[in-house]
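sry for the spam today, last one i promise. struct tokens for design, 90 residues
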């Protein structure tokens, strides 16, 4: 298993972005969470198989209709032990 930690900027709040990520993650068997930040971005922590994580990153770069993704930045890794089972919206 691999863990990724992403920050997504653009028009990503108020457009169902976190729920879109949750749906994609659950479909791909990925654990983790997505949360809105005070700076207007969405932060994502995801743990899963490398290929599934690549697919999630591709989906995140597109986003749901109504979203405008300007950038996806990889942040410092979160230890695998801190990622619970399932995928939550926080």
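last one done:
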């Amino acid at each position: 298993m691999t863990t990724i930690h992403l920050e997504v900027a653009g028009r990503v709040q108020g457009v169902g972005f976190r729920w879109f990520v949750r749906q994609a993650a659950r479909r791909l068997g990925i654990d983790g969470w997505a949360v809105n930040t005070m700076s207007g971005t969405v932060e994502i922590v995801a743990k899963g198989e490398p290929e599934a994580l690549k697919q999630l990153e591709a989906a995140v770069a597109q986003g749901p209709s109504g979203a405008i993704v300007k950038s996806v930045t990889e942040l410092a890794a979160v230890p695998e032990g801190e990622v619970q089972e399932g995928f939550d919206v926080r």
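Residues 2-75 form a domain with the Alpha-Beta Plaits fold (CATH 3.30.70.100). ok im logging off now
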